[in-house]
Design brief:
Elements lengths: L2 H14 L1 H39 L4 E7 L18 H10 L4 E4 L1 E10 L5 E9 L10 E5 L4 H5 L4 E5 H7 L10 E6 L8 E11 L2 H6 L8 H5 L3 E6 H8 L11 E5 L5 H15 L6 E7 H44 L1 H9 L4 H45 L1 H4 L10 H27 L3 H6 L2
Parallel strand pairs: 4-9, 6-8
Antiparallel strand pairs: 1-10, 1-11, 2-10, 3-4, 3-7, 5-8, 6-9, 7-8
Helix pairs in contact: 1-12, 2-10, 2-12, 2-14, 10-12, 10-14, 12-14
Length: 446
């Protein structure tokens, strides 16, 4: 009897005793579905973290003065000569202009202006670098971003929101190039006036609209009271405040890299530059915070937990395998006369063994396939529940979290392979017992 005929006979045997076959598979189905569900959840969390960081903005290196973890000497505050300044960051970038970028922002203050109808409008103004828009989740609808030229020449340009345009002009059409005069209400420059020319319009996200209660506005008077954002060049803000880059202290700076560089090279440039400044300093150093490393560590922990729980869940496959062995032994007893007839007609011991081994493998593989499908369905259902809870209980963060369902292909293949191995291992003893039967005794069996 060839391999194909053995498979056909195995499926025929399964269909004759459907309920018993299903109960035999149940342990395999539960074990495999549990493993696939767990690995799908772990893989999905990992993908969600990666996609969420990608959606929030480009990954950068954060640098800031910090204390050595192994420092045990006398404690002292950060000396002024070791504070991070804008001039240091700009010098670092200028040393590698085609490889490094930086992003920074700071609050200039609350400003007020009057729209074309004479109604007062307020906004929060921020000084930003040219790389700032790449690090936040905001899309330009018209115009351009703040450029290096705007920054270097401290130009009086600005980016405004689409909602601000509706407040001021009543439309977002044909507003690029218009100049608006603002009066500072809060901050260090209270009472100062600044005129800015609009070079770009960005779209407020749903998260912004929720924070600003824009979705709750119902009349024109309430609309005028919404405070949106205005971005203008960081150096222009310094000029208005009477500061220089050398006098501008930064709590931290965001350093990025271009296509001509990579992350490790960027770290090397940062270390080389600040090692000279912190030379001989025992307590303080310039720390580099890498978001991708943190995500990588989280993923490592998730993978370890996923594997550990999957191994525990896979123990149920042993239980399922014992069930397969038990049913195969019962099946052999029921089919003793069939075995005797086949042997009397010339079937070899190996033919009988192969038939029952293949039946055991088919049982486990079928159960494994059903388990994989159930595991993927469970993962999708859990993601739907998680999405519902996120949108219901934490709607303010929902926009920044991109839930991703990603079943683990290696886990699926390994699970199917393991189910086949279970059938082979636990089906071999009954198959061997069937193959070693004496045909005379088998034919006499009642």
């Amino acid at each position: 009897m060839n391999f194909v005929e053995s498979i056909k006979m195995a499926f025929t045997s399964l269909t004759i005793n459907k309920m018993r076959s299903f109960l035999t598979m149940l342990g395999i189905i539960i074990g495999i579905s549990a493993v696939i569900t767990i690995t799908t959840i772990g893989n999905s969390i990992s993908s969600t973290l990666q996609n969420t960081f990608s959606e929030i903005g480009s990954v950068k290196l954060s640098i800031y003065p910090d204390v050595h973890r192994d420092y045990s000497g006398e404690w002292h505050d950060l000396p002024s000569n070791l504070e991070l300044t804008l001039s240091q960051v700009q010098e670092l970038i200028n040393l590698h202009p085609d490889e490094l970028t930086y992003s920074c922002s700071d609050v200039y203050g609350r400003v007020e202006t009057a729209n074309v109808n004479g109604d007062p409008i307020q906004a929060s103004m921020y000084g930003v670098s040219d790389d700032f828009m790449d690090s936040i989740k905001k899309q330009l609808t018209t115009g351009r971003v703040i450029t290096k030229k705007d920054l270097a020449n401290a130009k009086n340009t600005c980016l405004v929101s689409d909602y601000f345009c509706e407040q001021y002009f009543g439309t977002t059409e044909n507003v690029i190039g218009k100049t608006i005069k603002f009066n500072t209400l809060k901050g260090l420059n209270k009472g100062c006036n600044i005129s800015l020319t609009i070079v770009g319009i960005f779209e407020l996200t749903e998260l912004d609209k929720n924070d600003l209660s824009i979705n709750k506005v119902h009349n024109d008077q309430e609309k005028m009271q919404v405070v949106t954002y205005i971005f203008f060049p960081y150096n222009t803000m310094l000029k208005e405040e009477g500061l220089t880059p050398e006098e501008t202290k930064l709590p931290q700076a965001e350093i990025g890299w271009t296509a001509k560089c990579d992350k490790e090279t960027a770290k090397g440039y940062i270390n080389d530059y600040f090692e000279k400044i912190y030379k001989g300093e025992e307590q303080w150093y310039m720390s580099i915070y890498d978001e991708e490393e943190i995500v990588g560590r989280i993923n490592t922990v998730l993978n370890v937990i996923t594997i550990a729980i999957s191994v525990i869940a896979a123990i149920s496959l042993i239980v399922g395998g014992v069930g397969v062995m038990n049913i195969m032994l019962v099946s052999i007893l029921e089919r003793t006369r069939e075995i005797g007839v086949r042997k009397a007609l010339g079937a070899l011991n190996g033919d009988i063994r192969s038939q029952f081994v293949i039946e055991a493998i088919i049982i486990c593989l079928t159960g494994g396939t059903i388990g994989v499908i159930l595991g993927i369905v469970n993962g999708v259902l859990i993601s739907k529940v998680a999405s519902y809870l996120l949108n219901t209980l934490a709607s303010e963060f929902a926009e920044y979290i991109t839930l991703t369902v990603q079943p683990s292909v290696p886990a699926i293949l390994i699970s199917l392979g393991f189910s086949m191995l279970t059938g082979l291992i636990f089906g071999y003893y009954p198959a061997k017992r069937a193959g070693n039967m004496d045909p005379i005794d088998a034919l006499r069996y009642e």
